[in-house]
Amino acid sequence: MSLDLTWQRAGSSWDSVAAVLGEQGPGSMAIVLVDRVNASRHGFLLRNHDDDIIVIETQEAKGSRVRSLADALPPVDARVAVIDATGRQVVLPEMPRDAADALTDSARKGPRYGS
User: Each residue of 53-83: pLDDT tens digit?
Assistant: First the structure.
């Protein structure tokens, strides 16, 4: 897997990301980076584990790292890179922008996160 990833908007819900992970099958994952108001940037994983989409919070204490998708941070100003089970990046379908995206969009330009 290359670390030179293309970051895409997550949209206003995790539904489209979860749908792509479901299509890609077990072992696929989404690397997620979220900018939060008044907090530092945060990263976590969404993973297809036996056709169940789970959240992996690597910064949580041992025994508390795996959560359900319903417990994920909201995708406000989130960027994702979806990786299939073989390590290849998968492009998400283009998602329409909504008011929440427009309000939280920063001055970032280009597909790379933090560029």
Answer: 999 998 899 999 999 999 998 888 899 999 9
Q: What angle do CA 93, 108, 94 make, to 5 degrees?
A: 10
Q: How many other CB atoms are found less than 10 A from the CB of residue 16?
A: 20
pTM (2 decimals)?
0.78
Residues 6+ apart with CB under 8 A from 74: none
What's at 26, amino acid-wise?
A: P
Residue type, position 73, single letter: L
Contact 34, 75 (CB under 8 A): yes
- Two tokens at 33? 């980076």
